[in-house]
């Protein structure tokens, strides 16, 4: 089982070398939110993860009231500006707010965003969400995408799995002193979920 963290602008400067020395094998950093917000620490985090040989992930905070294709393009442009994708890099959708929309519209947004990212980047994104949000129907149709479940009140590596999923891939088991995660597999298995250079690239 691999240990990881996730960060955003709230953490400020992150000492990636120290985290690597402490056993962190993978990490996600916030890149964008909606169609206009870019995390000012993302470029530094993206570089720092790579320099520390940490499996690197970027995530987008979804705003379902916006256009999913526009948000997907905005996210991928931010990743490209930070250095682009290398083999094994991970992408994720942070799906935890409904923007006061019904569940069917939230789920439709998420499906379209994931489809756009997969088509444009060649990476099937991981979907981050939490139990009550998924139970409310906001994740319908996302079962083909790996589940990153936030369940800090459940034993590490043993979270409940909400429909439509049958298994979890990453478990966020703690928020203190920062968000901590585990992956149920090896580094090679985690990297296999990430970017692979396209044959015609």
What's the layout of helices and strands?
Blueprint (H helix, E strand, L loop, with lengths): L1 E6 L8 H6 L2 E10 L3 E2 L3 H10 L3 E7 L6 H14 L8 E5 L8 H19 L4 E5 H8 L8 E4 L19 E5 L4 E5 L3 H5 L10
Parallel strand pairs: 1-2, 2-4, 4-5, 5-6, 6-7, 7-8
Antiparallel strand pairs: 1-9, 2-3, 8-9
Helix pairs in contact: 3-4
**What percent strand?**
15-25%
Summarize the amount of helix as a percent range: 25-40%
Quote the distance from N terminus to C terminus. Answer: 33 Å
- Write the element-wise H/E pattern from the N-terminal end onward: EHEEHEHEHEHEEEH
**Cα-based radius of gyration, to the nearest Å:** 16 Å
Structural class by SSE content = alpha/beta
Main sheet characteristics: 8 strands, mixed, barrel
CATH superfamily: Glycosidases
Shape: globular
> Spatial order of the strands in the main sheet?
1-2-4-5-6-7-8-9
By CATH, the architecture is named: Alpha-Beta Barrel
Number of domains: 1
Based on DSSP secondary structure assignment, what is the total number of beta strands?
9
CATH class: Alpha Beta
Mean pLDDT: 96
CATH topology type: TIM Barrel
Indicate the low-confidence ranges by residue numbers: none
Q: How many helices?
A: 6
What do you see in this structure?
- The chain is α/β, with parallel strands linked by helices and 201 residues long.
- It is built from six helices and nine strands; from the N terminus they run E-H-E-E-H-E-H-E-H-E-H-E-E-E-H.
- The chain has helices at residues 16-21, 42-51, 68-81, 103-121, 131-138, 187-191; strands spanning 2-7, 24-33, 37-38, 55-61, 90-94, 126-130, 147-150, 170-174, 179-183.
- A hairpin with a 4-residue loop joins strand 8 (170-174) and strand 9.
- The protein is globular and about 45 Å long.
- The mean pLDDT is 96.
């Amino acid at each position: 089982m691999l240990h990881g963290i996730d960060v955003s602008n709230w953490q400020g400067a992150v000492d990636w070398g120290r985290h690597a020395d402490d056993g962190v094998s993978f990490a996600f950093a916030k890149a964008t939110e909606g169609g206009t917000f870019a995390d000012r620490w993302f470029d530094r985090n993206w570089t720092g993860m790579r320099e520390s040989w940490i499996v690197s992930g970027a995530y987008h905070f979804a705003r379902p009231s916006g256009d999913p294709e526009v948000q997907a393009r905005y996210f991928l442009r931010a990743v490209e500006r930070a250095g682009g994708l290398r083999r094994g890099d991970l992408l994720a959708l942070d799906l935890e707010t409904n923007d006061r929309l019904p569940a069917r519209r939230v789920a439709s947004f998420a499906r379209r965003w994931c489809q756009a990212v997969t088509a444009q980047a060649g990476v099937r994104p991981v979907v981050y969400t939490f139990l009550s949000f998924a139970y409310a129907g906001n994740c319908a149709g996302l079962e083909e995408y790996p589940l990153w479940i936030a369940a800090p009140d459940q034993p590490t590596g043993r979270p409940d799995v909400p429909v439509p999923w049958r298994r979890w891939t990453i478990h966020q088991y703690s928020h203190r002193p920062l968000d901590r995660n585990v992956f149920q597999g090896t580094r090679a298995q985690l990297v296999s979920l990430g970017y692979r250079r396209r044959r015609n690239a």
